[in-house]
Specification:
Layout: H1 2-5, E1 7-10, E2 14-20, E3 25-28, E4 31-34, E5 40-47, E6 51-61, E7 63-75, H2 78-81, H3 88-101, H4 111-126, E8 131-140
Antiparallel strand pairs: 1-4, 2-3, 2-5, 6-7, 7-8
Helix pairs in contact: 3-4
Length: 141
Amino acid sequence: MVALLSIKRIPEGTVYTLRRFNGQARTLQPGTHLIWPLLERVVHRISLTGHVLAIDELFPVGASARLAGKVFWQVVDAERADASIDRAESLIRARVLNAARATDNPAEETAEARNSRLKAALNDSLRDVGIVVTRVQLALA
């Protein structure tokens, strides 16, 4: 029975992070691995494929407007993303709103220019977390 619990099969496009009781962590790449079932436990199953975050937030621009659309993101460094993967969507949402507020006059900015600026700003701020934004499709409504 212990032998069966010692074998972990990690599917393609996924990374598992393990923690030991002493706090030590390690990352398992796709494939078959042996683990210590009583000493190690799977903490996160991180998908390396793309994720989509829907944004629909009030955004003050003179008169109130809505910032609505989607942000496409993915994990590129599972070891760095492990610490923040549980709160990745709220982290990205907060950084989208902060970056969107950083412009002087967002109502005059074209949607394409805004999306390009937001993508660059998000990638700059999320690089240290191991997450990259692949596409931004947001509009002021």
